[in-house]
Amino acid sequence: MGGAVRAHNGGMKTVPSKGAPIRKEIDQYKQGLTTTQASFIEDAQKNGQLYIYQPYDLYSEENHTAWKKLFARMEPRWKRYANEHFLKGIASLCLDPERVPRLEDVNEFLCPLTGFQAKAVSGYVPAFQFFDCLRNRAFPTTITIRSSDRLDYLPEPDIFHDIAGHVPMHTDKAFADTLVRFGDCAHTAAEIVKGIKNHEEQLRRLTSIVRAMARFFWFTIEFGLMKGKDGMKVYGSGLLSSFGEIAHCIESDQVQRYPIQLEWVINQSFEIDHYQPLLFYVESFDHLFSLVDTLESWMREGKLDNVAPGEPGINEEDIESFLV
What we know:
globular, four-stranded mixed beta sheet, Phenylalanine Hydroxylase, two-stranded parallel ribbon, alpha/beta
């Protein structure tokens, strides 16, 4: 979600937004779309361009090598630890294991299944905009990729995390509908706080609500487990894109795994710079959908107005995105 967890219309194509760099100018950019080292992304950010296109010709051979290495080492771990919906989804997307995917190709397979599309962004997406994208069956997708010699180092989401970690789950109808429902919650939050006349109280309650939503997203969409007939499996994208943690979360006796309880999740802080010591599991995606329904009900009843303080921190840009 935004920056804490992580941006629009399901019918939109992956094309330049107004004012974005156009394709005929691509030769002005240095080759390579490596995370934190891409001049194309730097220019887009300087120009305030959030929604961009994917300049595929800028990917270097080193970028493709990084994708190839990441995919090759994750594939056996997916077969062992990932849930069946993910395995079916990644097969449905027909991803090339040796080349960074073209988003237009991904969307060609994805959209007919659930209406979702991957939408290229230049970086951080404010919380409300992020949720609104989910509501419109679009997933904000980073187009850069980590360096091939630092496969475990990820200072921010990259295209492997987004496309190989998140998007296969978007091929599942029940999971996709849950994301849309979660996007609805953001509009409920905006509606509630805009009705509060005292600005300080408005900000206080909104900060608590957004923190609760971020925690829910973290412990489900990013780091969720599912317990089924085949035992404990992974569906959270942060785990599905991590070579080390996907095994650790299932096998380590240092990880606490509990059946999900909404009151625990919304009051549980988390840290992003180490393996997660506490995880929650659901029984099904219908179960997850019902939890989102309850989350919205609690929001309307004021039960999210005073969640426990702590991580994640909620920045001013996230808060303001709900008040525009």
